[in-house]
Amino acid sequence: MITRTVSKNPRTTRGDLVNDLQRAGTKVTKATISNTLRRQGLKSCSARRARLKFAREHLDDPEEDWENVIWSDETKIELFGKNSTRRVWRRKNAELHPKNTIPTVKHGGGNIMLWGCFSAKGPG
Q1: Which molecular-function annotations from GO does this UniProt entry contain (predicted)?
Q2: In this structure, which of 30, 82, 111, 120 has its CB flanked by the most CB atoms within 10 Å?
Q3: Which domain does 26 fall in, by range?
Q4: Model pTM above 0.70
């Protein structure tokens, strides 16, 4: 039941699994859940952000084209609550499967946004 649940929804937490099993009449610990999933070849990993479309579109671009690119990124630091990493249970080499990724959606709240960039000529 543990493996089946995690296969359907890799974002299931150990706490969710413990609660589901308790409702079914079986008492287990979080450590038992982890050990069971590890024996099935699964491990807890950070969910990846999927950016495959861009990578595939530019796979064969010549090196000179990249000298005209400015790379930028931003991060949000939440002032209230946790800015925690979500974890998923997955098998080896399955990190980019859609079930194992999280969408890159921004939402409001008390936070600070930071931005930076760099190019072939240096940081900005």
Answers
A1: DNA binding
A2: 111
A3: 2-48+66-123
A4: no
Within 13 Å of residue 94, how many CA atoms lie on the same side as its CB? Answer: 15
CB neighbours of 3 closer than 8 A, spacing ≥ 6?
36, 37, 40, 42
Q: What is the identity of the amino acid at 7?
A: S
pLDDT tens string for the chain (124 positions)? 999 999 999 999 999 999 999 999 999 999 999 999 999 999 999 888 778 888 888 899 998 998 999 999 998 877 655 556 778 888 888 888 888 887 665 555 567 889 999 998 899 8
Instruction: Looking at 24-101, list the stretches that DSSP marks H as alpha helix, in order from N- to C-terminal side.
Output: 30-39, 52-57, 63-66
20 is written with which tokens?
Answer: 């589901």
Q: How many structural domains compose the chain?
A: 1
